Amino acid sequence: MLVIRRHVISFMVALTVLLPVGGYTVPRVAATINPVYFLISAVAHGVVEPSLPTTGASCVHDCVLKPSDMAKLNSSDIVFYIDDRLESFVRRLDNRAGRRLVKLSDEVTLLTERAVGGRFTHEKDLHIWLDPDNASKMVQKICTVLSEEDPENAHAYRQNAEAALAKIKDMAGRISAVLAPIRDTPYMAEHDAYQYFDRYFGLNFVAALSGSGHTVSVTAKGLSFAKKAAKEHEVRCIFTDPLHSASRYRLVSKKIKICALDPLGRNIRGTDGYFELMETIANSFRSCLQQRGD
Question: What InterPro entries is this protein classified in (predicted)?
Fold first, then answer.
């Protein structure tokens, strides 16, 4: 009996050491879409695993989340998102006291959408994560918020954020070198999601067939515009969304290469997801725009 009692006392002492005073627990953290999830994962690595709605991994514009996904967001203490003009479902979250909604687009300078089919929309382009400088600003904001809401782990968040910022800087240098040979080569996009990327790295964008914030709907007039622009600028490549059929774009020109490009990283996971996403995009640009022998 004495031996058993000693074991019980030893276990309770060990448990007291393992559990923070007052039953402290880390906040429940959620991301709305893959790129946000990647950046949170980099900052929160080893402390907390952010949740991600299953729909958020594959869809952004005009998404309707499943009830289970909305419940996942509603049960979180902190929700990081880009902008409710991008993830409109954020507006439908309940008003639970104590939850913190963090809009990351407030941390950067937003660009205006470029002309679509020769027409301007004057809407804001919200694909902000594709600019490494913007990603760095978002990492800093994520670190600040997590440290405020979870001071017990603030040191870990700061260390992770510093490492992520260094990796972003290094990644940007590598990508710049990869893209250097094809910077002047004209390209077009089905969906103009890459303005932040091509402006940062100095690529030669010609035209898009749909805006950065709208469902892709390409008309006969749009295809006619694409044919004219492709011929005039000697466009070598059209980037399309992997979820859409690319067959119609073969009508633009027999010489143009067609490449599926994913700005969300739908099939990417892990703490290095942001870097894999950016390098995948860079390699796709290089592969589609380079001439044989480059």
Answer: Bact_metal-bind_prot9, ZnuA-like
